[in-house]
Design brief:
three-stranded mixed β-sheet; alpha+beta; about 180 residues
């Protein structure tokens, strides 16, 4: 997608880059779309970079991404739905979702709370806070989830063999 300017049609939730701190793009604000990847948008607003979740894209006049979950009608949080949400989150620099990239080390469900153990491709990854924020935001959309916590772990260190074979193919790592 080439860079383009749009006007926020309504107040739009966003997260600051690289801190991941929630913010709001006010209605009527001009923003420049710098990147569209994995259904999310990285935009510049008043000289600051922010990330807009694809599920909120309609506020920017763009087509919103919709995540549809199967209705279980039992009040429980289901791990397959948490995994479904995680598959919609992409590394900002690599067009591969976090599960296939091998960044998710564990999912624990305690009643309506979800705890995600995850890592980064490198301990010094500057986008770590944004990825954590993306995980919290998307997993919170899973039915019956009331709280999402992310534990950042670096043991074992991530390496490319943690990626699925499909992800390795997509990244061009098989020769």
């Amino acid at each position: 997608m080439e860079r383009r300017m749009v006007v926020a049609q309504e107040a739009c939730p966003a997260r600051q880059v690289p801190s991941g701190i929630p913010t709001v793009i006010p209605a009527g604000t001009f923003v420049t779309i710098n990147q569209a990847l994995g259904g999310n948008y990285t935009v510049t607003m008043n000289g600051n970079m922010v990330r807009v979740d694809g599920t909120d894209a309609a506020a920017l006049g763009l087509e919103a991404e919709e995540i549809v979950f199967e209705n279980h009608d039992d009040g429980a949080v289901h791990e397959e739905q948490v995994r479904q949400a995680l598959r919609t989150i992409y590394d900002p620099e690599i067009p591969i979702n976090l599960l296939d990239l091998g960044l998710i080390y564990g999912i624990k469900i305690r009643d309506t709370e979800v705890v995600i153990d995850m890592t980064l491709t490198a301990p010094t990854c500057g986008m770590g806070p944004v990825l954590i924020s993306d995980v919290k935001y998307r997993v919170a959309k899973v039915p019956n989830v009331t709280k999402v916590s992310v534990e950042l772990v670096f043991d074992p260190p991530w390496h490319r063999d943690m990626m699925t074979e499909e992800a390795q193919l997509e990244a061009g790592l098989f020769f």
